[in-house]
Design a protein that fits this description.
Blueprint lengths: L4 E2 L19 E5 L2 E5 L5 E6 L3 H14 L2 E7 L5 H8 L3 E5 L7 H11 L4 E6 L4 H9 L4 E4 L7 H9 L6 E2 L3 H11 L3 H11 L4 H8 L3 H15 L4 H11 L10
Parallel strand pairs: 4-5, 4-6, 6-7, 7-8, 8-9
Antiparallel strand pairs: 1-5, 2-3
Length: about 250
Amino acid sequence: MPPPRHFHPSKEGCHPPPGSRSQRPSAAVTGGVVGAACDTAAMKVLIADDHRLMLDGVKRALEEDGGFEIVGETQNGAQVLPLVGQTSPDLVVLDVRMPNMDGLQCLEEIRRRYPKVKVVMLSASTAPDLIEDALRRGASAYVLKTVDPTDLPSTLRQVAGGTVFSTIGMTESSTSSGAKAAGLTEREVAILTELASGKSNDEIAKELWVTQQTVKFHLTNVYRKLGAKNRADAVRQAYQLGLIQRPLGDE
């Protein structure tokens, strides 16, 4: 199991928000991690995602904004709770599916042990039952991995302010109209989204809490409705219809 990574604020990681005065670093100890702190504190964020590209994409979007301090990151679900205790984040960006400890389990434990810490679930899945489950367990927001990276900082600020309690990144008008035109159901669009991220049938089944046979059944219907020859062709047509977008971690 790889060790958790801690980040100490530096000149590069401790920028003031646009339009604010420059900050003077001062010594601080947070959750047992010694580092520097800004006089005007940035929002402290812990990022947990088992996909390296996605984790780096989220991290880059927040660092470029300048109003966030990345206090830790992990690709292992079992490391999430220890890191929360050690780094005392204001907010955790948490992937729904994590190895060793499921993201939804992590969410429940964070809400139970650290009720003041807000949690934003991050997922490629648009399955309504999964979104509802995450919000019911205490997530402040459910952010799709197709969200525009430039929108992520403002989304997290809204979450911190308590103004967002819904799904972020789902363009209902374009997606619904495109799906309707193609005759696709919400579940079929959800499977297409997972397909576009390169997941196997087994991985899609685990992500959406269904059997592999159910995934195959839906894929057969998707191919038929789109007139697609294979997985790659189905994904290409889904992009053209506006049903799926380029993931946040993609370049």
